[in-house]
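Entry 14. Structure prediction run on the chain below.
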Amino acid sequence: MPKPAFLSLTAIASIPLIITLGNSMLIPILPVVEKQLGISPFQSSLIISVYSIVAAVFIPLAGLLSDRIGRKRVIIPSLAISGTGGLIAGLAAVFSRSPFYLILFGRFIQGLGAAGAFPLVLPLVADVFRKEEDISHGLGVSETANTVGKVLSPILGTLIASLVWYLPFFTIPLLASISLLMIVFWIDGSKSKTTTMTLANFAANLKDVMKREGKWLTAVFSAGFIIMIVLFGLLVYLSNVLEASYQVFGIKKGLLLAIPVGTISLASYLSGRFIGKNKARMRRTSLTGLSFVAGASIAMIFLRSLWFLLILMAIGGFGIGISLPSLDAILTESVENEQRGTITSLYSGMRYAGVAVGPPAFSLLQQHSTNAIFLASGALSLTAVLLIFFLIRPPQENACR
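Output returned:
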């Protein structure tokens, strides 16, 4: 890959890496936050959920705006807003006597910023690279950066919080500034094609697209939503159970949490290389990956020791890792450029909605039964398998229909 293309891909990959770090590294410190603020596990899960809910709501608007004025012009201010939200949360933790709701407000602002940055990665890859093989590779690298962020998050989160519990909030402005500068200098904004479509015309065209392509779009959107529910729900569960049941704390806890997400990172990179431009292969890879997640979830009911739990979560992580780039590629390469930003943003919105639902839903399930968590994870994953199997029927060379 020529140097300019390498730098462009590095800048693009910095967005999911930075945004993921800014959110996921809070997961392992939630038990610490609960103790420091005197809040319940459900309340602490809202620190993750409020960010994701806001992002899910505003992502479609960011996608439409990026189609009109260009990806770069939306991403740069969004990264600045995201950093500001982290700063507000950190200052609240330092100076407020009752910082919980101010922290939630900071996370609200951070979610607004994430809405305008993270979901534009997929269409930005398609704008910058032209060959289908390069697009698939770029999507794989982007998902890898996303999951590398998840690998580093528990380690960095526990390490930084061991110094001062609220310090992870202050890392968010720094990380966002780094990504912002890379986008400014290494991305050519002129490569983004824009449209002058009005909101009314867009809504009509979107309705037409959903009418024609609604079946397979529903499958892709639903699968992305389900994957994020399962992933973040299980990560929050694992973070809690490592401390409560196995007395694992600090860096050791971060390293153990990094095991399952590490397999996601490796699998995402390999999957991006493997699927190429073959849409039938993308579909098969998604089906295989989600089947792994369903099988591993059910097996967790019967194999409950710590190492079995970590191994099975790693297997499930591998399944998630090979599924996500395949779903990304199916969507990105099957949608017309004029609507790519908005359609992929709707997909990202569904993924963020899953991040919002997973932690509180699994926290509530855990109050009733640990088995309920694994049964829910298995049932949801199997539902995604069935949706993809029956609703996505791609011919070899044409769009998914």
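Confidence is low (pLDDT under 50) at residues 395-399.
Filed with the rest of this week's runs.
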